[in-house]
Design goal:
The protein has 321 residues and is of the alpha+beta class. The chain has ten helices and 17 strands. The strands form four sheets. Strands 9-10-11-12-13-8-14 form a seven-stranded mixed sheet, with helices on one face. It is globular.
């Protein structure tokens, strides 16, 4: 269905789905902020869009006259640098405080193609439940865990003490030209087109890399388009905690300088040691924001899913944070 068809489709009570841009996004942003922290991903990503650091994202608003009922992340437009990464497979997020409006958005013709796999990211628990129900009615397979429990953690300026860089090491920004391959090589669960995703993140958002005197990378972390930090990597296990704390605190302070919080998302199965480390540094628990995976039965092979190989913890392959 075309964009025009989606915009012209109306329900009996005059609810419409409208592609929203420009100054109209300011109202959407205020509405999303009023529903924090459950609308975290959309709220933060829209702020990055409004401030010009993130381009190409499209926004769909389910509305009745001037009242916003739900907001959904659409397929990126031609200005996006990561359209392949976000569409092969489709990755999206949405928010609605009402389960009826949530289901209406998800089933609106043209918004989600339920015949194809789709990763829903950082949903409220209520919104995740609606996705699960709609998935079941659209030939979603029962052979794979749908919901990935994750918890958001956040720190504000003053919460995290800046850890000094060890005297014999150097910390610098990552370079999109020279360091993208490095990040990809250590990202165990990267998927097709991850290089364009990482390159765009390094280009537009704060990052830090820790290097020795021979310019060998010892660890790094990136800020993502929804203002959370992720892809933390530390090279040597002996110093993993100390170096990780240096990296996390320094990237956090970079985000503080932009007026942003230092947020992260942690998969709760299995419980990772990184959660305790973040809390020890000064972060606090925010709320659960799970991922949900929809895989149609005819797209499920039993061995691989969306180019991910089954491991002991296959669902961690879907967590890009």
């Amino acid at each position: 269905m075309s964009v025009q068809d989606m915009e012209n489709n109306r329900t009996a009570d005059s609810i419409s789905l409208v592609k929203t841009s420009g100054q109209d996004l300011l109202k959407v942003f205020e509405w999303l902020k009023s529903h924090l922290p459950l609308s975290w991903k959309l709220s933060c990503m829209l702020r990055e869009t409004l401030e010009g650091r993130w381009k190409g994202q499209t926004w769909w608003v389910l509305q009745r006259q001037d009242s916003i009922l739900a907001v959904g992340e659409g397929i990126p437009d031609e200005n996006s640098e990561i359209i392949n990464y976000l569409t092969k497979p489709r990755c999206t997020c949405y928010f609605s405080p009402n389960h009826v409006h949530a289901e209406m958005l998800l089933t609106w013709p043209g918004f989600i193609d339920w015949s194809e796999p789709c990763i829903f990211e950082m949903l409220s628990n209520d919104n995740a439940a609606v996705v699960g129900a709609v998935s079941k009615t659209n030939n979603g397979t029962d052979s794979f865990p749908r919901t990935i429990r994750c918890i958001a953690i956040v720190a504000n300026p003053g919460d995290v003490k800046l850890r000094p860089v060890p005297r014999d090491l150097t910390m610098r920004d990552l370079d999109p030209l020279t360091d993208t391959d490095l990040v990809i090589s250590t990202w165990k669960y990267s998927r097709a087109h991850a290089d364009e995703f990482v390159r765009a993140l390094i280009t537009h958002f704060p990052s830090v890399g820790l290097f020795d005197q021979n310019n060998r990378c010892l660890g790094f972390e990136l800020t993502l388009q929804d203002e959370k930090t992720g892809l933390l990597y530390v090279y040597r296990k002996v110093e993993v905690v100390d170096w990780a704390k240096v990296i996390i605190s320094n990237l956090g302070h970079k985000n503080f300088a932009l007026g942003l919080p230092a947020a992260a998302l942690v998969c709760l199965w299995p419980m990772p040691p990184s959660l305790k480390m973040h809390l020890d540094l000064g972060s606090r628990l925010l709320c659960e924001l799970p991922y949900v995976l929809h895989i149609p039965g005819d797209k499920f092979s039993g061995e691989t899913v969306l180019r991910f190989t089954f491991l002991k913890s296959p669902i961690r392959a879907l967590c890009t944070f």
